[in-house]
Specification:
Length: 270
């Protein structure tokens, strides 16, 4: 009954729906109307309205049971808290396209944490770590650790450029990540372990936030998320930080303006 009542609420139907199912009908329908507001068949409405007992057809019971169970599952998923750009959170059902992608995210994040823990600086040259989303993960030529065709040739560019100055740069990135995910990865995710954080010669490059905009977060909250990541890194680390501006997202003037405002706001609040 609780799941069914909740299902009725989700559909915008008052809690008191049909006496035969959850309670008394919300406003008795005229005699010509042979169904309640949930669309459940009522062949003996007059008897129900007067308090009579009528056994519902088996098909109706099965329909109601299935609907209630499905609604309970929907409510379980939907009750999960919305992720906030400036509050650390791993990937959840709110930000993963499927259970398989969610599992893949946790597996790949564990790999990155292990790499961060094992990373050592090159004598006299310092360390370079790049944190971000799919744009940054392209330096590895992968997506969630799996080779990605769209990133073909990108690792070679890294080797010919940044890696000449900082041998073996740590590329710590996960496709699709948002600010709250990187915020979690720097802390509970273990991607900024003490040996790396205490390296005064560490240079960190962070590019994050475009997926927040893509997920529907407004520029203001997204900017707060970017700032939260920057502050968390600076709080935990002795190294330097290069915070990258967001690349334009989409092709509309409104989106371009939002991205520019986000970049300007982040720079002025650091």
């Amino acid at each position: 009954r609780p799941a069914a009542a909740a299902a009725a609420a989700v559909l915008g139907v008052p809690p008191r729906v049909c006496r035969r199912h959850f309670g008394a009908c919300p406003s008795p329908p005229p005699p010509s109307q042979s169904h309640c507001r949930l669309g459940l068949w009522m062949p003996a409405y007059s008897a129900l309205a007067s308090g009579g007992a009528v056994r519902p057809p088996r098909a109706t019971c099965l329909l109601l049971a299935s609907f209630a169970a499905g609604s309970g599952l929907w409510l379980l998923v939907g009750s999960q808290k919305e992720e906030q750009p400036d509050v650390a959170s791993p990937r959840t059902q709110r930000s993963a396209r499927s259970a398989a992608q969610l599992a893949k995210w946790f597996r790949w994040q564990a790999v990155l944490a292990s790499e961060a823990a094992a990373h050592t600086a090159s004598p006299g040259k310092g360390s370079l770590a790049l944190w971000g989303d799919s744009i940054t993960e392209s330096w590895r030529g992968t997506s969630y650790g799996t080779p990605a065709g769209r990133a073909n040739g990108t690792p070679a560019v890294l080797a010919q450029t940044l890696a000449r100055r900082w041998p073996s740069p740590a590329v710590l990135a996960i496709s699709g990540d948002q600010t709250q995910h990187l915020l979690w990865r720097l802390g509970d995710g273990g991607e900024l372990p003490p040996p790396l954080a205490s390296d005064g010669a560490l240079t960190a490059v962070v590019m994050i936030g475009t997926n927040n905009l893509g997920a529907g977060h407004l520029p203001g909250p997204t900017a707060e998320g970017v700032l939260a990541v920057a502050r968390e890194y600076l709080r935990r680390s002795r190294g330097r930080l290069l915070l990258c501006a967001l690349l334009p997202r989409g092709h509309t003037a409104a989106r371009d303006t939002a991205a520019r405002n986000l970049d300007a706001g982040a720079a002025s609040n650091l």
